[in-house]
Amino acid sequence: MKNITLDVKGMTCGHCKGAVNGALTELEGVDNVEVSLETGKVDVSFDESKVDQAKLKEAVEEQGYDVV
Ligand code: 9UX
Asked: What is the CATH number of the domain that holds 18?
């Protein structure tokens, strides 16, 4: 299991948080997601044999947010 933190721009309300959380959680191999609206940080723990950082970034971007 690997832990990373994505720096996400543009999340300001609870729906943003839910959208990002849901998009990541539904990915195969994602174990845990923690979204902070205050800091824009999204902690993700995932199985490296099933998913990678690029996929996680893509899933967040598909929801309409920029990942730094
Ligand atoms: Mo809330 Mo987020 O109205 O893009 S869903 S700010």
From this structure: 3.30.70.100
- pTM score, whole prediction: 0.94
Spatial distance between the Cα atoms of 10 and 2, rounded to a whole number of angstroms? 25
Domain count of the fold of the chain: 1
Q: Which atom of ligand 1 is nearest to the CA of 65?
A: 4
Look at ligand 1, atom 4, and give the residue with the nearest C-alpha: 16
Residues spanned by the domain of 14: 2-67
Pocket lining for ligand 1, CB < 6 angstroms: 12-13, 15-16
Tokens of 11: 């999340």
**Cα–Cα distances in angstroms (integers) from residue 17 to residues 1, 7, 39, in the given order:** 23, 13, 12
| ipTM attached to this prediction | 0.86
